[in-house]
Design brief:
The protein is α/β, with parallel strands linked by helices. The chain folds into three domains: 55 residues, no CATH class; 35 residues, no CATH class; 275 residues, Alpha-Beta Barrel (TIM Barrel). The chain is built from 17 helices and 13 strands. The strands form three sheets. A nine-stranded mixed beta sheet has the order 9-10-8-7-6-5-4-3-11, with helices on both faces. Strands 1-2 form a two-stranded parallel ribbon. α11 links the parallel β7 and β8. α1 packs parallel to α2 and α4 packs across α5. 44% of the residues are buried.
């Protein structure tokens, strides 16, 4: 006999509205097995936001918790803020965020501040594209990760690299044929420095020689894992004019590194910083608030150590426990229990970074984040990452090559984006490369972007 699942709470949603966004809002308050949405016939003129406001009030009463992001569930709250400012002005936008979207005063101030810091980039409109190059391999898979990254052997990496080079050649030709330049290049992953020095040299030479780069503002390589960063690879990057790299320890606590499946040491982080600084790279570093077993003191120890290494950018991530990750399989409710601890970490971290001269300049959110909070990129004055701001604003064409890459064609007259995804599995990507190229030919390069 099949067991019936009984939910603690049922919420009736008008049947003319898509239930997805409401489900995401309820999941901020309650685990998914504690509620269900049911369809209700609604005759009155009721809007999506009206339903979300009612849900927020009811759930706040049930749980005695008012999430600081209010009824917002999207990835890009700064983009929404900008749209509101263009329509209503700054003062009215603050009121709308506070009173309509129920965003807390602290988060409203943060949104307004970040929007201001982004203006020097956003106001410089660009017809050039952004280029993303995906390298979906990592030395190990982290406990919390569900990104399409793989522990590929050298043979797999070599096969993937050949396919990637073919796609890069196609994209470079297509952009040249329409006389479209590239404003920013971001080599991400995964861990791009899992490539050999020779492969990295070949890839970067292609990127620098095959594309129109008259107005290139930045070339970034997300080096990532310190144990994959060698002096030889740094020299290759310097040779081809890489401006920015990321060195991402996530934590400087040895026990946590072992717990989450990172194969590098704290000392390797320090060595990677020393070598990278000596070659003059702009350095970003990522840290994560809410890692298993860590206290606010542990997090602040990591942050203070990172500050002592003098990166130009520090991105503070809230742990997002993704579906498909080992941590989600082990403890599905982890991100609910971490809420108070992570809020404390983010508050302490923001204060410390600001005291050291860092300012917040970009922000985004993800599903399954501890406390449903946010990721914030901080920068020293003069070192903002253009690519980071552009992809969050979504007003530029992004051409993405490699497994898991999602290209976005931007039509400025209609202010809309059209997604053209590549498959995420690298083996399927290799097998279906011609299909990925044909997708781009049909949906990205067939017509002029208006």
């Amino acid at each position: 006999m099949r067991r019936r699942i009984i939910s603690l709470y049922e919420f009736a949603i008008p049947n003319h509205l898509n239930p997805y966004e409401f489900q995401e809002l309820v999941k901020v308050f309650l685990p998914k097995d504690e509620f269900r949405l049911i369809e209700a016939i609604e005759t009155e003129d009721i809007t999506k936001d009206m339903v979300k406001q009612r849900l927020y009030e009811e759930l706040s009463e049930i749980t005695a918790y008012r999430p600081p992001w209010g009824i917002l569930t999207g990835v890009r709250p700064v983009k929404l803020t900008g749209e509101l400012i263009r329509k209503w002005g700054k003062i009215q936008t603050e009121r709308i965020l506070l009173e309509h979207y129920y965003v807390s005063e602290e988060k409203t101030e943060l949104l307004m501040e970040i929007w201001e810091h982004q203006q020097e980039i956003i106001q410089k409109s660009s017809k050039e594209a952004a280029l993303y190059v995906g390298i979906p391999f990592c030395p190990t898979r982290c406990l919390y990760c569900s990104f399409p990254s793989n522990q590929g052997n050298q043979e797999d990496i070599d096969r993937y690299f050949k396919a990637l080079v073919r796609e890069v050649h196609y994209v470079a030709n297509a952009l040249r044929n329409r006389k479209q330049g590239v404003e920013t290049i971001y080599v991400g992953g995964g861990t791009p420095t899992t490539l050999s020095s020779l492969q990295l040299d070949e890839l970067l030479s292609l990127l620098k020689q095959e594309f129109i780069l008259d107005n290139l503002r930045e070339l970034t390589v997300e080096a990532g894992r310190p144990d994959t960063i060698t002096v030889e690879k740094l020299r290759v990057m310097k040779k081809w004019g890489v401006h920015r790299i990321s060195i991402n320890p996530q934590t400087m606590k040895t026990e946590t590194l072992q717990r989450i499946g990172r194969s590098h040491t704290v000392e390797e982080v320090r060595e990677a910083f020393q070598e990278s600084h000596s070659m003059g790279f702009i350095i970003n570093t990522d840290v994560i608030a809410g890692l298993p077993g860590e206290t606010p003191k542990d997090f602040m120890n990591t942050l203070h150590e990172m500050q002592s290494l003098k990166p130009h950018n520090i991105t503070v991530h809230t742990l997002a426990v993704k579906r498909g990750s080992s941590l989600m399989e082990q403890d599905e409710g982890y991100h609910y229990r971490q809420r108070a601890i992570v809020e404390e970490m983010l508050d302490m971290g923001s204060k410390s970074l600001r005291e050291q001269g860092y300012i917040p300049y970009y922000l985004y959110r993800q599903k399954h984040m501890a406390g449903s909070l946010e990721n914030v990129g901080y920068t020293l004055p003069g070192y903002k990452g253009w690519y980071n701001v552009r992809i969050m604003e979504e007003r530029q064409t992004i051409v993405a090559v490699g497994a898991g890459g999602i290209s976005k064609a931007y039509y400025s007259k209609e202010d809309r984006l059209e997604r053209i995804p590549n498959v995420s599995n690298y083996e399927i990507y290799i097998d279906r490369l011609e299909e990925m190229i044909q997708r781009k030919k049909k949906d990205l390069f067939m017509e002029e972007l208006s």
